[in-house]
Design brief:
Distance between the termini: 86 Å
Number of helices: 2
Order of helices and strands: HH
Structural class: mainly alpha
Shape: elongated
Strand content: under 5%
Helix content: 55-70%
Mean pLDDT: 81
Length: 81
């Protein structure tokens, strides 16, 4: 009976060391793991939607749209007053 208890205790210790070791590994390498997952997701999305997802920084527009009407000019907001 003592041998069985010793084997269970040894197995419990090995499992505990494995859990702590894997948690420590993930904690130390979390930035690398997160960046790896992000790059894999971007590759998958870019492959699924070609031309819609640009991996480079988008450039700023050269011009903006028209000016929105002010509430005093009777525009879209003027009819709610």
């Amino acid at each position: 009976m003592q041998k069985i208890v010793n084997i269970v205790a040894l197995a419990s210790g090995v499992v505990s060391i494995a859990v702590v070791g894997s948690g420590l590994f993930i904690y130390v390498n979390r930035d690398k793991l997160v960046n790896n997952v992000k790059s894999q997701v971007m590759e998958a999305v870019s492959g699924s939607l070609p031309g819609l997802v640009d991996t480079k920084m988008p450039s700023l527009p050269q011009a903006t749209g028209p000016v929105m009407p002010s509430p005093d000019a009777g525009g879209a907001f003027g009819k709610f007053r």
